């Protein structure tokens, strides 16, 4: 939960500076998790009405608590599966999806299910990362292999950690028009200590390090090389280190 909060706060302006919804808009946030992105959305569009859903009852409860703690009153939470949403057709003016499609085996089906509850001319916004876009200094073969382990684990679980580069065709395949995709580059060096701490260390490297047990279980990398890879990723957050990563933000319109 802490890692997700670090990511959301570190990247708020980069990912959401152009995300806002007008007075009275009904907005569905699909896959809200613990509410890290929800806080940003609700604060930036205080006159919109958000319904945020997630399959995990525990995540929904944590999200509800975090929103209440922030004093935000324009969000309602429900436990729900996006493939079986408890809403009528054309219930929402806008749908927002962030870091969800990467975990799903059929992202086009997910987008089509969400499109069903979107009103004609309503908008879909999707944000995803792409682990293949990570570049850093000092370079390290072990660090790149460690990232590759995370990509492989997600693939074995039915997801796609490289999905950011695919948002344009995915949105088209789901039937959206006027699809626009913009890359959002994160670059962190010694002049950007907030991004070094919030993204390089506490988000990306922590995320890779978090699959250590699965790497051992699947024998994807020998333990010594793995430890070197994690050490080298942390080294990019040290003096003289740099780290670059790309998120992709797509928008489309329902005909």
Can you give a write-up of this model?
It is a single chain. The chain is α/β, with parallel strands linked by helices. The chain has a single domain (about 1-255), classed as 3-Layer(aba) Sandwich (Rossmann fold), CATH 3.40.50.150. It has helices spanning about 1-15, 35-45, 55-70, 105-115, 140-155, 165-175, 195-210, 210-220, 225-235, and strands spanning about 25-30, 50-55, 75-80, 90-100, 120-130, 135, 175-190, 240-255. Strands 1, 2, 3, 4, 5, 6, 7 and 8 form an eight-stranded mixed sheet that branches. The protein is globular, with a radius of gyration of 18 Å. Mean pLDDT is about 95; it is low at about 1-5.
Estimate the mean pLDDT confidence.
95
**Count of extended strands:** 8
Name given to the CATH architecture = 3-Layer(aba) Sandwich
CATH topology: Rossmann fold
The count of helical stretches stands at 9
CATH superfamily: Vaccinia Virus protein VP39
Q: Which percent bin holds the helix content?
A: 40-55%
Largest sheet: 8 strands, mixed
Count the domains: 1
Succession of helices and strands: HEHEHEEHEEHHEHHHE
Give me the secondary-structure category.
alpha/beta
Condensed summary:
This protein is of the alpha/beta class and 255 residues long. The chain has helices at residues 2-16, 36-44, 57-69, 107-116, 141-156, 167-173, 193-209, 212-218, 223-235; strands spanning 26-30, 49-54, 75-79, 92-98, 118-129, 135-137, 177-188, 242-253.
